[in-house]
Amino acid sequence: MSDRNAGTLYLCATPIGNLSDISERVLETLRSVDVIAAEDTRNSIKLLNHFDIKKPLTSYHEYNRYDKANELIDMMRQGADVAVITDAGTPAISDPGQVLADMCHAAGITVTALPGPCALITALAMSGIDSRRFVFEGFLPPDKKERRQILGMLEDEMRTVVVYEAPHHLLATLEQLYEHLGDRNIAVCRELTKKFEEVKRMRLCEAIGFYKANEPRGEFVLVIEGRSSEELMKEKEDKFRAMDLEEHMSMYESQGMDHKEAMKMVAADRGVSKRDIYNQLIIESNGRSN
Ligand code: SAM
Hints:
alpha/beta; Methyltransferase, Cobalt-precorrin-4 Transmethylase, Domain 2; 3 domains; five-stranded mixed β-sheet; 12 helices; 10 strands; about 45% helix; binds S-adenosylmethionine
């Protein structure tokens, strides 16, 4: 239950480069709240000075995200309205704003979001790559094992994949994406909404060659085409056709399926009818008993 006397948490989207992208509503909110929590106060002070906003500023970042959230929640319980802004874009998208929003919900504090710039959505729109279905991975995990696990899960991903990356890690990430996902189409989106904005559409191996020759600079979003369903189906069919029928049946039966269910699955995998499988199994079993 939310406390009617408590303040509100406002998640305010700020520009990812071009200051004109800030919304009227964000400016009004930043002017009206009691306190602004910023990921990097030195960075945000420039933005606030530019718009002549003078408000108490406090830092809210990855390393104080739990303790500071409790402090901010206490302030909101006493009626203060708090705006949260991060270094760029929409708070809670690959930055600590998410923890604060989560803890406010748990504490019964009203959370609202003022939409605006977001590198993920800007890159996806500009990429021209299928945006009907996509997965956002944010930054791939730095831990090697965890990273391999995520990349392994993306190998057969048919949806468009969006990844954030810093310039000094770009080349290694492109190489790992190539190793796991193959030579897919990619849009390398750089410095969005800024002076040197660019979107490079190429194959992953071309991107590797390009950034080996040209040192990556600026901020990047990678938009990678999903695996084609035809290719995936063909690969599966080839794999199953290479198995003999008995092997294929026991693969499903060992997973707990009964004979009928296994026949249905095997028929679908091989692109034939259940009757064909039934007949083939009879022929094979007669062949063995003769
Ligand atoms: N909350 C932000 C958002 O809404 O997009 C993202 C924050 S995350 C800590 C920072 C990453 O976003 C950068 O490393 C980069 O991958 C991406 N990014 C932010 N601004 C960008 C820009 N102008 N051009 C390209 N990528 C950008």
